[in-house]
């Protein structure tokens, strides 16, 4: 609790700084941290937005803007570095992150690491771009080279969800989770009790938690599901849902 209060206190300081300087921005936040910041400023008169350098980025920066200031140039927030290596070599997210950490780089200066079949890149705060370009030469035994590219040159593979239509007795977490992943209620209860379930990136151990349209569910070891649409009810009072399931 004390650590979270310190973290939110730093966000309050950034919001105050924005009023004087025009804008202020955090380093990169985890999804849970971003959610916590959004909740903290929910009822405050603060111009707050989140951006990770591209649409649907997982790790984002919080941007506090003085409404009288105008817009902030996106290039002041992010740098994108393409990472090249031989085609016969294979590198994944963990390999690239490990190589960056070995250089003494702090994790919150780095955004998403993008690893597609033919394209690998990392997003970082602009201040780190030159250092990474000059020093990132190897990941494990694989020789690599990093060079800056424009944000519009990022190649992002969109993960298309499997769309499921279901009916549930209620919008409780355990009911929707069972419908999304085809689990028994006992198995669902076991996953929730084991703290393996998150709602919008925040852990939840309350099976009775009511969900709303747009909520993102994450289950460790199974994947993710988003509650896309809440429809009407059947004659028996069950609720119609449309759910997008990822990672199965």
Walk me through the structure.
The protein has 3 domains: 2-72, 2-Layer Sandwich (Ribosomal Protein S8, Chain: A, domain 1); 79-153, 2-Layer Sandwich (Alpha-Beta Plaits); 162-246, Structural Genomics Hypothetical 15.5 Kd Protein In mrcA-pckA Intergenic Region, Chain A. 26% of the residues lie in helices and 32% in strands. It is built from 6 helices and 15 strands. The chain has helices at 2-21, 31-40, 93-102, 129-135, 173-181, 185-193; strands spanning 23-29, 47-51, 60-65, 79-84, 110-115, 120-124, 138-139, 142-143, 145-149, 162-168, 197-199, 202-203, 216-219, 223-233, 239-246. Helix 5 (173-181) packs across helix 6.
Q: How are the strands ordered across the major sheet? A: 10-15-14-13-11-12
The CATH class name of the largest domain reads: Alpha Beta
State the CATH superfamily name of the largest domain.
RNA-binding S4 domain
- The assembly state of the depicted protein chains is single chain
The figure for the number of domains is 3
The number of E-state strands comes to 15
Q: Percent helix among the residues?
A: 25-40%
Tell me the Rg in angstroms: 21 Å
Shape: globular
Kindly list the characteristics that best describe this protein:
248 residues, alpha+beta, Ribosomal Protein S8, Chain: A, domain 1, Alpha-Beta Plaits, Structural Genomics Hypothetical 15.5 Kd Protein In mrcA-pckA Intergenic Region, Chain A, four-stranded antiparallel beta sheet, 6 helices, 26% helix
Give the secondary structure arrangement, pairings included:
Blueprint: H1 2-21, E1 23-29, H2 31-40, E2 47-51, E3 60-65, E4 79-84, H3 93-102, E5 110-115, E6 120-124, H4 129-135, E7 138-139, E8 142-143, E9 145-149, E10 162-168, H5 173-181, H6 185-193, E11 197-199, E12 202-203, E13 216-219, E14 223-233, E15 239-246
Antiparallel strand pairs: 1-3, 2-3, 4-6, 4-9, 5-6, 7-8, 10-15, 11-12, 11-13, 13-14, 14-15
Helix pairs in contact: 5-6
């Amino acid at each position: 609790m004390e650590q979270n209060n310190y973290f939110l206190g730093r966000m309050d300081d950034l919001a105050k700084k924005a009023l004087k300087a025009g804008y202020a921005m955090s380093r990169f936040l985890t999804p849970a941290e971003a959610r916590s910041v959004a909740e903290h400023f929910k009822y405050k008169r603060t111009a707050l937005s989140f951006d990770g350098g591209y649409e649907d980025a997982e790790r984002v920066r919080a941007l506090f803007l003085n409404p009288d200031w105008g817009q902030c140039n996106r290039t002041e927030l992010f740098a994108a570095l393409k990472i090249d290596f031989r085609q016969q070599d294979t590198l994944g997210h963990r390999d690239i992150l490990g190589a960056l950490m070995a250089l003494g780089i702090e994790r919150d200066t780095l955004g998403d690491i993008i690893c597609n079949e033919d394209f690998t890149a990392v997003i970082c705060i602009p201040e780190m771009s030159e250092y990474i370009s000059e020093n990132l030469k190897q990941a494990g035994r694989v020789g690599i080279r990093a060079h800056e590219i424009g944000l519009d040159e990022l190649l992002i593979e969109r993960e298309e969800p499997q769309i499921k239509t279901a009916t549930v007795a209620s919008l409780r977490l355990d009911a929707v989770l069972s419908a999304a992943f085809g689990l028994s209620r006992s198995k669902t209860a076991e996953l929730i009790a084991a703290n393996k379930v998150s709602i919008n990136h925040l852990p939840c151990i309350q099976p009775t938690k009511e969900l709303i349209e747009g909520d993102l569910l994450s289950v460790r070891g199974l994947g993710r599901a988003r509650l896309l649409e809440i429809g009407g009810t059947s004659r028996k009072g069950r609720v119609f849902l449309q759910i997008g399931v990822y990672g199965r």
